[in-house]
Amino acid sequence: MTYLPLSYLLGSRAKVDIIRILVNRQNYTGRKIAVLSSTNPNSNKKALDFLIETGLVLREQVGNAYHYNLNDKHFLFEPITTLFKEEEKTINKIMKCGAAFIEEYAPKTLAGFVSYLRSNVVLTVLAHSFPVKDFADYVYEKTGFRVLVKVIDTISLDEKSVLDYAEKVYFWNNYKSIVKMLDSRNIVKTFFNF
Questions:
Q1: Are residues 94 and 182 in the same domain?
Q2: Which H or E element spans position 170?
Q3: Which of 18, 42, 109, 183 could form a Cys-Cys staple with 127, CB 3.0–4.6 A?
């Protein structure tokens, strides 16, 4: 058995993303992992190859596609799954708190999602005129976690502004989510009574 320091095993965002994805569901294709991951496909490929080499991730060919899952026989399987499930509980607590704030203080908020930026949890909301500081303070008061709050203003939302904003601040998969919402511009206008 080879010793694997955690800094080596989890030493990149791609590796962490892949393990996070596989912990939540034990079998994904490489293509699906690429869609769900916040890193580029080249980084994903390198990370998957590394994780397979360590034995933590298994690869199986099914038809034309490779399917990946965590190796439940690996000596780090239990600690890794426990770690990522605890992280998920924390994020769920933050999201529930955020949803409670929005319901009470900002009911016309269109959507929100959670992402990570370096060492921060980022709560992003699609809204017009949103109380950012109050929201961050509320989440901290209720959960003990400081979060970054980003607002994408629904009035000026278009594909170009979203692309510029997403490239500077967010991972690329959040950009895809926002662009899909742009197709519903009429719903947004109706929602905000334009």
A1: yes
A2: none
A3: 109
